[in-house]
Request: fold
Amino acid sequence: MTEIFIKNMVCPRCIMAVEEVLAKLDIGFEKVELGKAIIYGPLNEGKARELEEGLRTLGFDVLKDKDVQKIEKIKNLLQEQLQQEKVDDDFNLSGMIKEHLAEDYSRLSNLFSSLQGMTIEKYFIHLKIEKAKELLFYQELTLSEMAWKLGYSSVQHLSTQFKKVTGMTPSEYKKLKDKPRKGMDEV
Reply:
């Protein structure tokens, strides 16, 4: 088995897209999950190039550097955490990462910051705010329910971080959804 780490996979549709590329190229695989594909055996140079090209056309990149792969693993763990029904009240970011990567958290944190230009914690906050924007736009959850789902201690905490990241309150953002958009003939 060979693990291939893939950048920019963020949702179940990404998994399906990668599976389609693998099938099209007749590359046998055990499974595909966020951030990686587990294939049967190593690829020859030509097949590896074909795979990289096929993935690149869909907006994905094959990761080769070990440090970059670690960063992508961290990002995928955080994405998966937000795919859960709820972020637990006792969720421990550093503990979860340390457990899954079996490495010193401070080293991983420094590596992440140096390659991403932000801390793991800040990155996770940005992911949570993106999820909040999605929930505000598509679902009819109250702010209280959203705060609970995303692991915030209060609506105020969620609102403060939301405003810090987006520049507007959740209520202001939600109003954007309700505003009718002007057609080209109305501009």
Q: What stands out?
A: The longest strand covers residues 2-7.
